[in-house]
């Protein structure tokens, strides 16, 4: 039994209510648009789509913790742009991983 359905052929555009001050026309869902859009609009559209996934704090069906200390979140954000594959460039990260 499928838990989700694929988009219909008629659902080939993204219609954004909250980014409408930047984008007047709908955007293609499955290909890159012909013209660029402002970064604020791109953020708003992606953020709106991700909100449809639900709130992990309200997920009572799984037995995992979806909350972490704010300090952990800060550490993740401080290192999110590191390329961990390049272990020579980031030796401290490699050492922390090995511990």
TrEMBL record:
Query: Which InterPro entries does the entry mention?
Result: Glutamate_decarboxylase (IPR010107), PyrdxlP-dep_de-COase (IPR002129), PyrdxlP-dep_Trfase (IPR015424)
Q: GO terms for CC?
A: cytosol
Pfam families, per the entry: Pyridoxal_deC
Q: Which cofactor does it need?
A: pyridoxal 5'-phosphate
Q: Which UniProt keywords apply?
A: Calmodulin-binding, Pyridoxal phosphate
Keyword Iron-sulfur attached: no
Q: Name one GO molecular function term.
A: glutamate decarboxylase activity
Q: Name one GO biological process term.
A: L-glutamate catabolic process
Q: What's the family?
A: Belongs to the group II decarboxylase family.
Q: What is this protein called?
A: Glutamate decarboxylase
Q: What is the scientific name of the source organism?
A: Populus deltoides (Eastern poplar)
């Amino acid at each position: 039994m499928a838990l989700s359905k694929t988009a219909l052929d008629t659902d080939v555009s993204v219609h954004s209510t909250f980014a409408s001050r930047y984008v007047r026309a709908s955007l293609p869902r499955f290909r890159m648009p012909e013209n660029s859009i402002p970064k604020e609009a791109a953020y708003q559209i992606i953020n709106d789509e991700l909100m449809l996934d639900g709130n992990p704090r309200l997920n009572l069906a799984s037995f995992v913790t979806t909350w972490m200390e704010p300090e952990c979140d800060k550490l993740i954000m401080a290192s999110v742009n590191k390329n961990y594959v390049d272990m020579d460039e980031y030796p401290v990260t490699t050492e922390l991983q090995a511990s």
